[in-house]
Amino acid sequence: MQPIAMADLAGQFARHAGEIVEAVDRVLRSGRYVLGKEVAGFEDELAKSLGLPYAVAVSSGTDALLASLMALDVGPGDEVITPAFSFIATAMVIPRVGATPVFVDIEPNTFNVDPEKLLEAVTPRTKAVIAVHLFGRCAALEEVAPILRERGIALIEDAAQSQGAQRNGHGIGFWGDVACISFFPAKVLGAVGDAGAVVTSQADLAERLRQVRIQGAVSKNVHSRIGGNFRIDALQAAILRAKLPLLEGWIQARIANASRYAKEAAAYPTLLDNVQFPQVSSAERHIFAQYVIRAKNRDALKAWLADHDIASEIYYPKPLQAQECFRGRADDTPVAEQAGREVLAIPVHPELPEGAPARVVATMARFYEERAA
Q1: CATH 3.40.47.10 corresponds to the domain 9-104+111-245
Q2: Contact indicator for 198, 209 with CB cutoff of 8 Å
Q3: I want to staple 130 with a disulfide (CB 3.0 to 4.6 A). Which of 54, 82, 207, 277 is the partner?
């Protein structure tokens, strides 16, 4: 059988080569390869697509987070609260500005930060919170955001995986001071290399982000604050402009594939006894950047799938404070630890063949049925 991969970027390009090649050709012929009209055009179109007034495109999703901390003047002596279950970049940026990460636990069903645990972790030293919208669904920030605002604590939404997701009718950037997006190639909207953006409703913050993006400059050779080289390439911006109108269709394809998984799984009682599939409420729009299940005997299941030419990935195997770079942290996050032992992402991308979800589910079901026998 044909292998089922976690992504098919070559297939995606083949379907839309005309638009993408035209965008590349336009930039190369312009002779303007850094910032400029192409970047400004993408920023305007991205902001409008999210219903926000400002977007500042940068060099990566990680740099979006880092630039946000810098623009919000987070630094030595400050604490930044963040969930223990996320990609390493979420927390890695915190010590880079001299601040201290404080890791809190997650909700067992959404894998997003537990709002109660977040508020319990607030101290007089808390300067900011980085809340992650993980795997394509928005975190429950509706009660947290006003409390943080009253206390003067900045809220950064790490929306690297969740552009287009909604909760109670609101999308990314609604709750926080900023929302940070990644355009890593495998994201729902991906560049052909690293790229990212910060979106915000605050004009002054958008201006500070633009300064941070170009070495803290307010004009040529005039630098008002510490910044970095966080500029996005015009080439990436042009490619993202070509892809942005396609995003909604890709999201709908992911949602459809997720529905196929749920429908197929319903026919296998033994599978449902061993695997927890994503449950989405009517108040959510989950875009399924990843389709993540909880599985008993996860590592053996992953090996079984590989033996049957089906790719899968573990996002993420252990809580962030357990990483060597954060050694010494002792934050208590049992839900995140359990998730690290059970989570498994299976293919959900738009290029997935129509029959692939049925094949993946049937293969997983055989794994558990053989062991039950």
Answers
A1: no
A2: yes
A3: 82
